[in-house]
Structure prediction request, 84 residues.
Amino acid sequence: MNEQKMSPEQIRQLAAMVQNAEDVKCVCGSIVFIQGNKLKRISRLVTGEQYDKFVPLPGLICGKCGEEMVLDDMGPEPDNIIKL
Ligand SMILES: [Zn+2]
Prediction:
């Protein structure tokens, strides 16, 4: 993840892009999503360690109907989600 500080000009450009960007909508029409986590269990049989490992993976669910939002054109890296 890129931890570099953005310049005031970059922040201004990003704010303008966000303001003009389309809203992602749930199938129910809602545009508000709640952050949650999927939890993956990696078996100790796979890792060879004493206990299973648990890995939380961030995900978004619709705040209205509870459907999970799947970003189908999202690349393999989570870096294409901009945290404001
Ligand atoms: Zn929904």
Remarks:
- Residues 8-20 form the longest helix (13 residues).
- Residues 7 and 20 are 20 Å apart (CA to CA).
- Strands lie at 33-42, 53-62, 68-69.
- Residues 26, 28, 30, 62, 64-65, 67 surround zinc ion (CB under 6 Å).
